[in-house]
Amino acid sequence: MAGNTKKTKTAQIYRKFEDTNRLMIEVALDNYEDMFSEWDPAPFKRRAIDPDLRTFLEECSEEISIRHKIAIAFFIPKAEIDPEKQLKCEEGLRNFFQFNHYLAEKELKASRKSALKYFMFGAAFLAIAVTFERALEANVLFGIFGQGLFIGGWVFLWEALSLLAFKNLELVYAIKEWERFLDAPIVFKKERKPDQVLE
Description:
- This protein has a 3-stranded parallel sheet, with helices on one face.
- It has one domain (2-189).
- The protein is mostly helical.
- It contains 5 helices and 3 strands; from the N terminus they run αβαβαααβ.
- Helix content is 62%, strand content 8%.
- The radius of gyration is 25 Å and the shape is rod-shaped.
- β1 (23-28), α2 (51-63) and β2 (70-75) form a beta-alpha-beta unit.
- The longest helix is centred in the middle third of the chain and has 49 residues, at 83-131.
- α3 (83-131) packs antiparallel against α5 (140-183).
């Protein structure tokens, strides 16, 4: 019941894009420069995205189920419409999405390697502790060492499990979100201002 309620509320907030089932994230801008950081002097296609716009897009994406495809519509004052700038802005935004997708995949790859390393260390420590348990217990000092191997082994295994069960799942979801952004049509409109406005 709660899922249906959330789905209904999402449909009320986000309009559908043209004749598709894509939900549209609408952003009102005063000019094209609002899309990018005012402190970055690079051209649009290489300029860093405005932090407020990034936060806005990410928050909207979190509200929309990952099962839904999206579209992004920027509303620009009629006097500001410039097709050439639109192409450069779209290219810059897609470069931003692509770069973050690359970073998330790189982090996931590193995280998986770390999980495998922790698992191997944990398994090795426990194997040594179990194999030589009797010999280690014959001496107090060795017994302490053996207990250390058991504790260290379980710590490494828990770290591997933590990466696989938590961090990696978050990264996989983030990758799916960036892929959804990359798949999203980006359009510029002047017909009306949306109900949602980027402050």
